[in-house]
Amino acid sequence: MWAKYSARSTASSQQMEQIEQPPLPIGQDLERQTRNIVTRGPRLCGIEIGSGDAVILLHDVLKSHISWTSVALALSEKYRVIAFDWPGFGGSDKSIDFSYDYASFADVALDAIAAFGESRVHVVGHGFGGAVGVQLAREHPASVRSLSLINPHFMPGEHWTLRASRNRLFGKLFLRQVTGRVTFRAMVNSTYRHASLTQLANADQWYAQFNSPEGREAAWATLSTMNDSRALLASLPRIDIPSMVLWGQHDALYSLPVGRRVARELRSKRFELLDVGHSPAEEAPDHTARALAEFFAA
Fold first, then answer.
1. Is residue 144 helix, strand or coil?
2. CA pair distance 129, 154, nearest whole angstrom
3. N or C end of the chain, less CB within 10 A?
4. 63-93 b/e with 16+ CB inside 10 Å = b?
5. Cα 239 to chain center, whole Å?
6. What SS3 state is found at 213?
7. What is the pLDDT of residues 87-138, one digit of tens each?
8. Pairing relation of β-strands 80-84 and 54-58?
9. What is the DSSP string of 277-294?
């Protein structure tokens, strides 16, 4: 069993250490700018670039903060951009003492916001990160300046690899034993309309970070949480925060009617379709960054 991690309130200076290094210059390779973020829970791996109003970028399941690289660089011209790897993914701790549920992930995001000395931020979430962004807005609305959702997860994914990984009888075996590099690549590549060489290289890096007993357990626990997002979906009409939904209309995981329903129930100020798959930030980063910046400034 996964032990419960809970951090419901903003961390005090006694409870949380600040970022270990000062911000690094804009424009360098973000992968070389990663640093540890020390919170009350798991150690996180992330980046911070730029200055201005803070924007926090929440990545999708099986990926890491590098999925935001191009968008982060573009936004950093006007904003302070923060991105980190979720516990269990990327370079962050893969801890058996963490409960891989929406509430605990939202607490991690809140802790990361406090660790960077911020109290109110623009929240941008992709896929699973979008669902966590909704959880954060629902539980801690005072910390969320605006909410931008990019192909957020609220329904079971339709791709066969995601259906297999979530199956209660077969899913744990599938992720623990069956999923090798080829299958993992298929899972990640299903998030793109057309995968580029960079995205294929990223998939190999994410597989290396996934391919340990702790990484596989974390992925299984997170995908199990994603089996039921009905409470989050039902909470959308009660969220009173400026919101936007960006949707890749060729998403192989979640159909367009899901995106339209999310935007309608969230009463989003903006709903925009992009001619890409599930991952607009990677497939159309300039368009994504421009839409986000326009929404933040509105």
1. strand
2. 11
3. N
4. bbbbbbbbbbbbbbeebbbbbbbbbbbbbbb
5. 19
6. helix
7. 999 999 998 889 999 999 999 999 999 999 999 999 999 999 999 999 999 9
8. parallel
9. -S-HHHHSHHHHHHHHHH
